[in-house]
Amino acid sequence: MDAFSSLPPAWVEAAVHAHQFCCPRCGAEARQAKAVWVNRRAPVYSETHRRKWQEFYHCGECETAWWAWSSDRPPADDQPPPPEEIGPFDGL
Asked: Which residues constitute the domain of residue 57?
């Protein structure tokens, strides 16, 4: 299954919206999914004019199909923390 295929797989029809970025049935993380599909054909724009997509996951633990907004995905563990705000007179 290609996550970026233009055609959705059949299992997305039964997907439920997860309000936390994990399987709403068993709590498995997205990385435990056995299949993923991103609906890139219909982006939604946020209040700040940023695009977000529906990301669909087929849980590898309990077989539940679920989806969440790409903007709700937590940062990856290996991403560096955002830089701290530094004032123009700090360190003088």
From this structure: 10-72
For the whole model, what pTM was predicted? 0.77
Q: Is 11 exposed, middle or buried (0-12, 13-18, 19+ CB in 10 A)?
A: middle
The verdict on residue 30 lying in a domain is yes
Cα–Cα dist 59/56, whole Å: 10
10 CB contacts (<8 Å, ≥6 apart)?
Answer: none
Task: Identify which has the larger pLDDT, 86 or 56.
Answer: 56
Reported as a pLDDT band with limits 50, 70 and 90, residue 55 is very high
Total domains, the chain: 1
Examine residue 50 and state whether it is found in any structural domain, yes or no: yes
